[in-house]
């Protein structure tokens, strides 16, 4: 039987990924409001932050972390950090 701590870790992974995705979506909406678009607000740093937070965590980190949980392995901090490094490299 699965311990409560392991279940909490799984829920925490989902909540962290959701939080990061919401941050990315908000960065995108703040940078380009629908009523006026300011292309000067799109700096390379802002673009990288949007890409990192809006897509990297739910498209790379979450599936890998879920797969590790399915085979009864805990995702490590290095997996989480690799998403950050990968998005900065691209």
Give me the secondary-structure topology.
Layout: H1 4-31, H2 44-70, H3 77-89
Helix pairs in contact: 1-2, 2-3
In short:
The protein is mostly helical and 90 residues long.
Please explain how this structure is put together.
This protein is mainly alpha-helical and 90 residues long. 76% of the residues lie in helices and 0% in strands. α1 runs antiparallel to α2 (44-70). It is elongated.
Shape verdict: elongated
Major sheet attributes: none
Which whole number gives the mean pLDDT? 77
- End-to-end gap: 41 Å
Domains counted in the coordinates: how many?
Answer: 1
Q: How many strands in all?
A: 0
Parts with pLDDT < 50 across at least 5 consecutive residues: none
Radius of gyration (Å)? 16 Å
Structural class: mainly alpha
The run of helices and strands is HHH
Strand content range:
under 5%
Tell me the helix content. over 70%
Question: Count of DSSP helices?
Answer: 3
Key phrases:
single chain; 90 residues; 3 helices
